[in-house]
Amino acid sequence: QQQVKQSPQSLIVQKGGISIINCAYENTAFDYFPWYQQFPGKGPALLIAIRPDVSEKKEGRFTISFNKSAKQFSLHIMDSQPGDSATYFCAASRLQGGSEKLVFGKGTKLTVNP
Amino acid sequence: NAGVTQTPKFQVLKTGQSMTLQCAQDMNHEYMSWYRQDPGMGLRLIHYSVGAGITDQGEVPNGYNVSRSTTEDFPLRLLSAAPSQTSVYFCASRRTRGAYEQYFGPGTRLTVT
């Protein structure tokens, strides 16, 4: 059972465009939704995260939009740059309890063409 | 702080061989975990630990053993390597209270022939 579904699998965007990656989750107990960015040959690194008490969180060119009723959240990258080319993973977890596991989507490979 | 370190960076094994992937963190994090990353499969949890002496299975634990004798170290053992264990392995750590950011190591690329 895949608890977090991510789409698309790959995405090609022109420089300056908007990149949008979508995720859907099933477990309504999840209350922490991070996005991780991974460059080739490196480990994933936290990019931005949101709690379900807000509908949007913005950090620079990166924005998470969250729709609790639809159980969906998305990452928007504004003014996409070639340096944003990486694989992006959405994830979900519960914060209550120190042993809660982070469940990852399957990833989206983003390519930003110059 | 070095963060999360992993050794070796690359490893080639023959089927049936055993080996240990090392992971260490210097952030005094209680929670440590191992993931494997395969193309199109995302990150799948193998084993995790919430503190020294406590370990539990993740999504894909078969063929792997772990132990946690100290807060800093969390080695992953392959008992009898199989070609299906060819993958990139990532160790990660985080606190169990407060800030929830999970930190990943640089990964170990393992090939089993």
Describe the structure.
The complex is a heterodimer of chains A (114) and B (113). Chain A is 0% helix and 52% strand. Chain A has 114 residues and is mainly β. Chain A is globular, with a radius of gyration of 14 Å. The N and C termini of chain A lie far apart (38 Å). The model of chain A has no long low-confidence stretch (mean pLDDT 93). With 113 residues, chain B is an all-beta fold. Chain B contains no helices and 11 strands. Chain B has strands at 4-7, 10-13, 19-25, 31-38, 42-51, 54-57, 64-66, 76-78, 87-94, 103-104, 108-112. In chain B, strands 2, 4, 5, 6, 9, 10 and 11 form a 7-stranded mixed β-sheet that branches. A 4-stranded antiparallel β-sheet of chain B has the order 1-3-8-7, with no helix packed on it. The A-B interface holds A 6, 9, 32, 34, 36, 41-46, 49, 89, 93, 95, 98-99, 101-102, 104-107 and B 4, 30-31, 33, 40-45, 48, 50, 56, 58, 90, 92, 96-97, 100-107.
Gist?
With 114 residues, chain A is mostly beta strands.
What's the number of helices of chain B?
A: 0
**How much strand content do the residues of chain B show?**
over 45%
The radius of gyration over CA of chain A amounts to 14 Å
Largest interface: A-B, 23 and 26 residues
Task: Decide which structural class fits the backbone of chain A.
Answer: mainly beta
- How would you characterize the largest beta sheet of chain B? 7 strands, mixed
| Helix-strand topology string of chain B | EEEEEEEEEEE
**Helical residue percent band of chain A:** under 10%
Which consecutive residue ranges of chain A, at least 5 long each, have pLDDT under 50? Answer: none
Morphology of chain B: globular
